[in-house]
Amino acid sequence: MSETIPFFNRMGDEERAAWTGALRSVLPGHTIAAPAEMSDEAAAAARVAIVANPDPAEMARFTGLVWVQSVWAGVERMVGTLPERIGIVRLVDPVLGEAMAEGVLTHTLYLHRRVPEYLAFQRQGVWRQLDHPRASRRTVAILGLGELGRACAATLTGQGFKVIGWSRSARSVPGVDCRHGDAALPLVLAEADIVVVLVPLTEATRGLLSARMLSYCKAGAGLINVARGPIVDRTALLAALDSGRIGHAVLDVFDTEPLPADDPFWSHPKVTVMPHVAAITDMESASAIVAANLAAFFADGTVPPTVDAARGY
Ligand code: NAP
Questions:
Q1: Which residues line ligand 1 (CB under 6 A)?
Q2: Whose CA is nearest to atom 1 of ligand 1?
């Protein structure tokens, strides 16, 4: 049976049109509708919606929603803002994992091969060669062993790095030294040459890399934050960079995005600023995954795994 599926988003016209077109092409038997254009009757009848950072107020008329499918992997802005009865399904896409693994490998090699220092030498016209150990002598800690963290771990171990993974519950990942729980974090940080942040933003992870936690890092350790800005305490990070505790930070995510023009990170010599591009949703593969999830729901009522409201992810 044909269904009308509202697409809640706060995208610009061009991006919205591209997504709507992509979703229509993979859901040909159904209608992808702009929520504002749906009647109250149609709104109340909708059982599932597709969302990208939706405005919860706009969803109030949609009283029959059972679950919403996000086209993005990070859904922390939605958790706690929707009525409890609505399940939140985030995007789980192997293509996104490949993209994140490629991004994290890029930044890991950049730090491992000391490129920030060579860029500084170049600016000064200095010809100087630095040592770097073999990859197998570098330990990379990945905080978060979820869909994206595991993809990164596989790529980094394949590249020869020693990888420690850290998660909330116990995990087993081939080739990865897995640790879990709050008590394990100081030692994980103390053993890592490069720390990759890939936990979701929740009440438990906000400010996780505090001044105290950063103090456990090896002197001169590299930091790569590709998760969410507020997971790393920015004041503590600036202090750790200035003291040399952190040698260089690659930041893809920030407390405020776009990063304000006067933010000290822009000009900090030990910071590489990236505009939230570590893993961008691939519209084609994401649309296909959304379509498959919706098809299963329309066929037999199957709802994909939803975000656990208590855990926050
Ligand atoms: P996921 O599958 O939900 O995995 C989350 C991982 O973090 C799990 O291993 C989880 O532990 C761990 N974790 C959560 N809370 C923790 C805590 N308090 N202590 C220790 N470990 C904790 O998430 P994902 O798909 O890998 O995505 C991770 C994040 O990447 C997203 O939430 C989003 O913020 C970010 N992201 C960034 C970009 C970008 O372009 N920069 C793109 C997409 C996503 P358990 O294994 O025990 O559950």
A1: 73-74, 144-149, 167-169, 171, 198-202, 204-205, 226-228, 252-253, 276, 278-279, 313
A2: 146
Domains of the chain: 4-93+281-300 (3.40.50.720), 94-273 (3.40.50.720)
**CA distance linking residue 308 with residue 204, whole number of Å:** 14
State whether residue 74 is helix, strand or coil. coil
**Crossing angle of the two packed helices 283-300 and 94-112, in degrees rounded to 10:** 150
State how far the Cα of 206 lies from the Cα of 2, in Å rounded to an integer. 42
Task: Give the whole-angstrom CA distance, residue 225 versus residue 260.
Answer: 18
pLDDT single digits (tens) 70-89? 999 999 999 999 999 999 99
Query: Counting Cβ atoms within 10 Å, is residue 247 exposed (0-12), middle (13-18) or buried (19+)?
Result: buried
pTM: 0.97
- Is the distance from CB of 207 to CB of 234 less than 8 angstroms? no
Predicted local distance difference test score (pLDDT) of residue 251: 99
Residue 42 CA, ligand 1 centroid: distance in Å: 35
Rounded average pLDDT over 245-264 = 98
Pull the structure tokens for residue 170.
């116990």
